[in-house]
Amino acid sequence: IILMLFFDIILPLVLYYVLKNYMLEVWALTISGVPPFLVVIYGLITKRRIDILGALIIMGFIVTGIVASLKRDARIQLLRESAVTGTIGLVFLISLLPIKIGSSQIRPMSYYFARDMQTGGSFGSSSKKNKDVTNDINERWERLWNDNAVFRRGYRVLTALWGVGFVLEAPIRIIIIFKAPTVERAFFWTNIVTYSWLGVMI
């Protein structure tokens, strides 16, 4: 869990604050999205699974790359986070709908997020023993989902709260981006808003 949070959240922040002293802020913001991208690729290659937190953050990397190629404006780059958090909110809300993929019905996004946190996401050990533990955890969560109505209701409510929160967070971030006196302050305060909300929900 610590490694997952380090690569998905802490390292991108550190990279931005270091690199912005040596290059355009636009590219510092773009490069700061690389670690979560690598985490997702690592998980796909070594475990054939997608780290949920990394997958959500990777959307920011993709949007950043597109925007960076269109306009070299750091404030426009920061808007990519608002687009991403808004999109994440919609994904959370959509996951509450009774949608089936093949023979399986999708679960609320917070269910997958919490399960990944317990198994270590992409950084869970690949040893046979730990694979067995991960499989046991997945099977236990599946049983709880199928047999426990309170468990299902809890994750549906949590997913709804996250979804609404992320959707509402986007306009707040946009206001900060265009009202802050400097890009650095805008970057700092928009991240404070995001991670404060994550801290409250976690």
TrEMBL record:
Q: What keywords tag this UniProt record?
A: Membrane, Transmembrane, Transmembrane helix
> Mind telling me which residue stretches traverse the membrane in this protein?
26-45, 52-70, 82-99
Q: What is this protein called?
A: Uncharacterized protein
